[in-house]
Amino acid sequence: MLFAGGASVGITAALGAAAPVRAAARRAPLSDVFRLGVASGEPTPDGVVLWTRLAMDPVAPDGLGGMPARPVPVEWQLARDENFKRVVRRGTETARREEAHSVHVELDRLDPGTEYFYRFRVGTDISPVGRTLTTPAAGTASRDLKLAVASCADWQVGWFTAYRRMAEDHPDVVAFLGDYYYEYGDYKYPVRDQAGGECLDLAGYRLRQAQHKSDPDLQAAHAAAPWVVVWDDHDIENAWAGDVPEQPDPPFLPRRAAAFQAYYENMPLRRNQRPDGWAMSLYRTIRWGAVANLHLLDTRQYRDLYACTGKSGTVGPDCAERLDPNRTILGGKQEDWLFDGLRTSEATWDVIGQQVFMMEMDWVNGEQKGYSNEGWDGYVGSRNRLTAAIEESGRNAVVLTGDVHSHWAGELKRDHQDPGSKSVAVELVTTSITSAGNGLDEYPNTQVLLDENPHVKFFNGRRGYVNATFTQKEMKVDFRSLAVVTQPHYPAYTSGSFVVEPGIPALNQV
Ligand SMILES: [Fe+2]
């Protein structure tokens, strides 16, 4: 049999007869299939999603991880202890080629506010162990939320040590705000070589996702806590806005559909978040007892095109279009959903996790003003409607932001066009995991930027992440920084700490 099988593959493949090849693939042994690690996400008081994706060769060029075409049964276990002495749930899911052999296990009827451990098995292969937890029951005020916040992980420019340090800080939940990878082709002098070129199709996005998931530091961060994820631009294409791409080739909407499909496959998301072609609904609220509601926004899929130039990232002469009250960065439906969520919230904190700079920022030193048209400065109508909704609802809002590859903290004004306007929220901007390389704590123009934007209170230009702890009494934030990411193993240090009290949207340095 062995001999006959081996011979038939070569001969029939050469003759173009596919059936015996498929038969051989069905028999191919599986080994070391958990090279992409494990993850969990979307926690509720009674459930969570467990995720893995099988791959024997994470950088296989077709994006399918070197897996045979056949469906593979994957056993899973959930336990109260990391040694799996107290297993509370078990089952089997099928990993299918149509979803790149990813597995999404949606659990329900679990205990609220409880820590669990999980693992998967295929044959004799057993996955690494992940830790996850359910959120506290509605109304529970006694359980604090320790949230880690991150964005922007460019494989080619450095090591993902910041993810490792984040895991070592033992967060309850990780909020990832976009740019989980970069879709770009190869850089000239990469710190780390990436597989594949620019992501243009489903194979390309699957491969980029798989290579990232093969990173041990990223795996540690996924195994440490449930993640809640939203994309920004590079998860699809630099600076995309609604249906409008930066580059016309390849056709954008099929490309977006491919990126969304790979995004779903590779993230611990729920089945009802699966894309429908080039549409995928990602905005939602994660509830943490009576302490916090975490509203996660999508500022890419429904936004109007860039003001003033039609192109993103413009910092230069101001123009009236960005102030147009009809412009939107969220789209009407998402905006209604968010404002309704704020109006009906009963949590101490309403945390708004999103992608791009929300408070006003004059990026040009000196007399001249320069605003980015990619952030909310390019969508002032949207910003004013949101700040009005925060004010009217009387919520304690904390905005979380990524995208700009440096730490910032500041106060969001009710109306930044009105110099006497009061603050309605604080904004915490997390730096990148690696993007932009090592950076500096301060740049020559940092103090001028802070002086010319007095509502902005803090800057740090290293790589890292944010730890924010929400309690009934206060929110405390630690900005975590690493001096070096172009070499592995560097420690993290706290570059700034602030406390915010409920009812007073102001940053108090500690
Ligand atoms: Fe980025």
From TrEMBL:
Q: What is the lineage of its organism?
A: Bacteria, Bacillati, Actinomycetota, Actinomycetes, Streptosporangiales
Q: Which organism is it from?
A: Nonomuraea zeae
Q: Where is the PhoD-like phosphatase metallophosphatase domain?
A: 147-479
Name the record gives this protein:
Alkaline phosphatase
- Which Pfam families did the record assign? PhoD (PF09423), PhoD_N (PF16655)
Q: Which residues form the Phospholipase D N-terminal domain?
A: 36-134
In terms of SUPFAM superfamilies, this protein maps to: Metallo-dependent phosphatases
